[in-house]
């Protein structure tokens, strides 16, 4: 007889075999007792039955109790994967506890490594943007001195370098962060982004309409939510004539976000291309062509999706799904 692979099956099989063997021994022992004590001969069957059932129940209870820590461990691991926990707490059987301790140590080391990566990315951003700010000042001085063409060329290169810095820092943050994050409410983040965009596009009086329930959230780091939705909303505002809408709905385990504008839209064969790095469809509109690519990378990093479609408003519709919080 081959041994089952699962621990549960092995424990149940061992309990049944142990109980059956014990019942046999008990039966043989009871026969000797009954023969030795004539007064017990009439109650022999009842005694054996009661004792047998009691031992069987005790064996099954012992097998069940031995599985309880593993059921709890499964729930802890599920919480860890979902981002609700950062370590596995609790006491477990001696055969498993060393493995749990090693796993917790690995999780702690990983968190320290991620924190070091985030700090390094911040230092890199500061180290690169300070010289760019100084170059911007030099360009302004060149323009004041009457060297307009030189100033324009410097400013163009500064914009390109700044865009590249932002792009690669975003990619570094993706690589340094895990795909599981704690749940955060989505409404405050969207409200903050919309207030900023209304100020940036105040001269064009873009009407930005929002529909979201306060209880809806996502399991995405807050800065990554701002990066994803900020790029998509800013893109919609750049192309919109007068109106941008944002709607958020809960769909099973995912949060669905749609952003639409009433701009000129985008041809079907270009919708997938603009999600690639550096692709732009109109050089007259400010931008680097990296924003949508960053939004796509971050969305897919968290197990979500992003797609561009035709909007009923006449422009473009961006459909995003992210893990629900």
SSE map:
Elements: H1 7-36, H2 44-82, H3 97-144, H4 148-176, E1 184-185, H5 187-200, E2 207-211, E3 217-218, H6 222-239, E4 243-251, E5 254-261, H7 268-271, H8 291-301, E6 305-310, E7 316-323
Parallel strand pairs: 2-4
Antiparallel strand pairs: 1-3, 4-5, 5-7, 6-7
Helix pairs in contact: 1-2, 3-4, 4-8, 5-6, 6-8
Walk me through this protein's architecture:
- The structure is a single chain.
- The protein starts with 6 loop residues before the first helix and ends with a strand.
- With 325 residues, the protein is of the alpha+beta class.
- The chain has helices spanning 7-36, 44-82, 97-144, 148-176, 187-200, 222-239, 268-271, 291-301, and strands spanning 184-185, 207-211, 217-218, 243-251, 254-261, 305-310, 316-323.
- The protein has a 5-stranded mixed beta sheet with strand order 2-4-5-7-6. A two-stranded antiparallel sheet has the order 1-3.
- The protein has 3 domains: 7-82; 110-176; 184-323, 2-Layer Sandwich (Heat Shock Protein 90).
- It is elongated and about 125 Å long.
- Helix content is 59%, strand content 12%.
- It has 8 helices and 7 strands.
Short description:
The chain has eight helices and seven strands; from the N terminus they run H-H-H-H-E-H-E-E-H-E-E-H-H-E-E.
Number of strands: 7
Number of helix segments?
Answer: 8
| Uncertain residue ranges | 278-289
Proper CATH architecture of the largest domain: 2-Layer Sandwich
Mean pLDDT: 78
CATH homologous superfamily assignment of the largest domain: Histidine kinase-like ATPase, C-terminal domain
Strand order of the largest sheet: 2-4-5-7-6
Q: Determine the structural class based on helices, strands and strand pairing.
A: alpha+beta
Query: Shape, please?
Result: elongated
Residue share in helix: 55-70%
The number of distinct structural domains comes to 3
Share in β-strands = 5-15%
Rg over alpha carbons: 33 Å
CATH third-tier fold name of the largest domain: Heat Shock Protein 90
